[in-house]
Specification:
The complex is a heterodimer of chains A (111) and B (114). With 111 residues, chain A is an all-beta fold. Chain A has no helices and eleven strands. Chain A has strands spanning 4-6, 9-13, 18-23, 28-36, 43-48, 54-57, 60-65, 70-75, 84-92, 100-101, 105-110. In chain A, β7 (60-65) and β8 form a beta hairpin. Chain A is globular, with a radius of gyration of 13 Å. With 114 residues, chain B is mostly beta strands. The N and C termini of chain B lie far apart (37 Å). Chain B has strands at residues 5-7, 10-13, 19-24, 31-37, 44-50, 53-57, 65-68, 75-79, 88-95, 104-105, 109-113. The interface between A and B is medium-sized, with 24 and 25 residues.
């Protein structure tokens, strides 16, 4: 019952925008977004707690639609440093603090 | 804030041997989590502690796996009678108490079972 992420992979040119989606089959309490570069640990980006909440820093933002059990990550004016694999981690309403991660979205930003 | 540390970073072992990994969380974090990640997949939850109490364990986790956090600080994950299918990256994360606190990951221990 892991969340489904789409697309699985995306290639961008520097300056282009991308959207990564995360859908859950179970009711969500929160959604956590991480970026992982090859051979490194996942790095925390942001957490969304309330339905409809949007958060962001720099040119990366995210939204959370509690009713649809979905979250989207928006990367605008992408930079080379944005390359990596993005994971959403979902915290279910009827579970404790464990996160269930999606399969990831591989993002490559080219010059 | 020195971050989450894990030791060793790499471990190669033969099938049937026991291995133990260590995780030192961020000092003010009460919660500690263990995850396993295989190539091309997201981290998979194994177990988590609040202070020294193990509060949750994945139902899919074999009984060959055991974790401890005896004094509520560092934690160890032991795998007994390793199998080739145990080869993976073992990640530790820590967070403050409170639902939906961000989890911060360590660099991981890469286990290879020959």
């Amino acid at each position: 019952q892991q969340p489904v992420q789409s697309p699985q992979a995306v290639i961008l040119r520097e300056g282009e925008d991308a959207v990564i989606n995360c859908s859950s089959s179970k009711a969500l309490y929160s959604v956590h977004w991480y970026r992982q570069k090859h051979g490194e640990a996942p790095v925390f980006l942001m957490i969304l707690l309330k339905g409809g909440e949007q958060k962001g820093h720099d040119k990366i933002s995210a939204s959370f639609n509690e009713k649809k059990q979905q979250s989207s990550l928006y990367l605008t004016a992408s930079q080379l440093s944005y390359s990596g694999t993005y994971f959403c981690g979902t915290e279910w309403k009827d579970a404790g603090n464990m996160l269930t991660f999606g399969g990831g979205t591989r993002l490559m930003v080219k010059p | 804030d020195t971050g989450v540390s894990q030791d060793p970073r790499h471990k190669i072992t033969k099938r049937g041997q026991n291995v133990t990994f260590r995780c030192d969380p961020i000092s003010e974090h009460n919660r500690l989590y263990w995850y396993r990640q295989t190539l091309g997949q997201g981290p998979e939850f194994l177990t988590y502690f609040q202070n020294e109490a193990q509060l949750e364990k994945s139902r899919l986790l074999s009984d060959r796996f055991s974790a401890e956090r005896p004094k509520g600080s560092f934690s160890t994950l032991e795998i007994q009678r390793t199998e080739q299918g145990d080869s993976a990256m073992y990640l530790c994360a820590s967070s403050r108490t409170g639902r939906s606190s961000p989890q911060y990951f360590g660099p991981g221990t890469r286990l290879t079972v020959l």
